[in-house]
User: What shape does this take?
Amino acid sequence: MCGVAGLVGRSVSLDKAKLALQTMRHRGPDSSDHWIAPTVCFLHTRLSIQDLSNKASQPMRDRDTGVVLTYNGEVYNPDDLRRRYLKDCKFESHSDTEVILKLYCRYGLAFLPWLSGMFSFAIWDPRDESLHLVRDRFGIKPLHYVAQDGIIYFGSELKPMVALGAKLSLNLAAVSDYLIDGLLAHGPDTFFSPAMTVEPGTVMSWYPTTSKSSRYWKPPIADDEIELSVDVEQEIWELLLASIDHHLLSDVPVGVSLSAGLDSQLLMHGIAQSGLSDLHAYTYGFENPNYDEIAPVNQVDFNISYTHHTVRLRADEVLSDLTQAVAVFEMPLGGVGTLSAWRMMRLARETGTTVLLAGEGADEIFAGYRYYFDAHFADLAEKGDLENSTREQEAYERSHDANLRTLGVNARKIEGAKGVRAPDGSSLSGGLVLGVPLRDVKVRTPEFELWRQAKGHLRRAMLRDAYAIKLPKLLQFQDRASMAWGVETRVPFLDHALVEAVGRLPGDWLICDGVSKSLPKRMMQRFAGGPVATETKRYVSSPQREWLKADIFEDCKAFVRDGAVAGYVLIDMDRFLADYDTYANAPDLGNSFFVWKILNLEAVLRRFCPTRLEFTL
Assistant: This one.
């Protein structure tokens, strides 16, 4: 895991290159370097994970062809790639970087589907003066670009591109999407225009007279459902174990981001079967026992010995931590939980752990959100399976203590909705009156061209979350939270072989007997000796509502009252403060997200747009 940046199209001074490297030093604290030609600049800051020697340093240049690579991430099958495709090549390092470089030099871009891992990289090929920007299948690793005045800038973050000369300004459309519908990282654009994001599973190429974008991988859309005679649980469990084993590949200490939930338990049992020793685990929590993960984690038998490190965020630390964190996130944070994860990653670095395995992606591939039930019920109804439909709906009512007539969300509403829903199905939209600069901004609906092709309401809802609504922002949150401190996070549930296998399964493998994530829960019982997990998911995971209503109510009002949001008239501040007073005095906890959005927007503007709506280093 590293930081990459560069440009094609003009000369770059050494001073500018060094400034750009400095802006992403946190991503690669171990070393940094540059490669500069008359109209090309490639930069790299290194976090050493595999092959810690200087022979693996970047940018890496092929001596025979002159091709240059700057690469961020990890490829988990380098030995297999060497053996199958490069067995007659002489290597100077043991790094996966050199494997990618040699694969390109021999096969061009045809090698991309062979890679297993998380990655984003740039290749400069002087033979045809082409630039190629590549991102992994799920967008685990970030890669942004700016096409401006005939120059192509690229970077793991926005700051190094600005340091190299790109001009960015606040993206009012993205701000509007966020304030109205709670959307973040839901498309190719970013919070600052005209910076864009290379989409997952995509290679973007620029040549002297043309450019093109193409997908080298597409997610499964359940057209080829798995034969039911196959032992599905065994197959998926073995794929998960193989993924965990691959994600443990490292020459530095590996730990795990640990909660009391199912995803962490599966990871821990997989790690135990790998034989890894001296494991360090990290958990964030809160003093409020209703939301604390630390105590529940200590009650779980993970069947493996580990050293447990914990950190708790207090209410009076929220605003100061938020102000620091947005400098790396370059956009709003998801909530108090995201801020806690940012703090937890600092603890990991301080205690000597450079790599953390995490459970992101499990809810999106195994159907973990409550609103997926409606989509599943709609699928059953359209199949005319009255018996199964009735049984599933009755099981849902028992397990959730709910009446389906009051659920209030149907499958078509989910598929057509513009905004984000919390895991429990509640909306993150609304609650604000926009100011003059945003009133004429067109509201946009997130799109992912493949999700409409999927078979059934459930698959469409899951693909939409995975590629437009939820997973892209969760992965960006995770990347920025960890790389702020020079920690690499890995997500074994997003191994493409595992995702492809689960993606071919009928919906009743994922939601069954009124239980979501039914398949991993059954695997937990069968292969890891866990209990029969029928409890519902705990959807609210932080005391954010209590803190914003009471503990830091006055501090939050003071933070925004005469700040940048008010100064730029992006909302009706008087109306917001009045609504905030009403919310604070209401007897129920309600939805605090309308307050969180303004706190985050204020922090972003203070850091990057202190005097005008242009990105400032």
